[in-house]
Specification:
heterodimer, A: mainly alpha, 5 helices, 75% helix, B: 26 residues, mainly alpha, 1 helix, 31% helix
Chain lengths: 84, 26
């Protein structure tokens, strides 16, 4: 977890309005992704936020699954940028 | 098990954290 941020629980997330749920998840994912890919953090976070909220909550608790999704997104993004 | 396979969307909107939103609005 990121210092200064309390862990995000499923009940906290469920209590938030739908529109804010992705922002809540993003606020917690962003610093973790920024530590891996500082320059792509915003874009990668946006890509991962399209995943189902329950899976995102699981990824916040499981660094391995977060890292694998991040690397998958980075690979696709870089392949796309290379094509352009 | 029923989770949809993750297909990264390169056109997904970039996420902007709240602290950066405030910085850019100042």
């Amino acid at each position: 977890h990121v210092r200064g941020q309390e862990p995000l629980t499923a009940s906290m997330l469920a209590a938030a309005p739908l529109k804010e749920q992705k922002q809540l998840l993003g606020e917690r994912l962003y610093p973790l992704i920024q530590a891996l890919h500082p320059t792509l953090a915003g874009k990668i976070t946006g890509m991962l936020l399209e995943i189902d909220n329950s899976e995102l909550l699981h990824m916040l608790e499981s660094p391995e699954s977060l890292h694998s999704k991040v690397e998958e997104a980075v690979a696709v993004l870089q392949a796309h940028q290379a094509k352009e | 098990v029923d989770a949809k396979p993750f297909v990264p969307n390169v056109h997904a909107a970039e996420f902007i954290p709240t602290f950066q939103q405030k910085k850019s609005s100042l």
